[in-house]
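Ticket #4471: structure export looks truncated?
Reporter: QA, pipeline team
Priority: medium

Steps to reproduce: submit the single chain below to the structure queue and open the exported record.
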Amino acid sequence: MNPNNIMKQVRQMQSKMMQVQEKLASETVEAQVGGGMVSATFTGQGDIVSIKIDPEVINPDDKEMLEDLIVSAVNEGLKKSRDLMTERMGGITGALGGALGSMGMGF
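Actual output as written to the record:
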């Protein structure tokens, strides 16, 4: 394969990756735990947008439960955000690996 064509493909993939990253910034995922008592919303880039807590779960005598629910919601939201990013970037990074592999630079 012609190295100039490969570099052109790499530039096209870089452009596509930038477009996907911009789109991920506007997409959101939500994680709910405790039967919806706590929810966390993230962008597709992994930035937290909001945390919502049902007032019924706020108990000063059991703050550890609320803390655990918040940690669970944040961790689940981060996982969903990473999964969304992996899904959106999968085709692009797969094509990049193929282009590099054809140059003898496979990983």
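Status: closed, not a bug. The export was complete when the record was re-opened. Leaving a note from the reviewer for reference: The domain at 25-96 is CATH 3.30.1310.10 (Ybab; Chain: A;).
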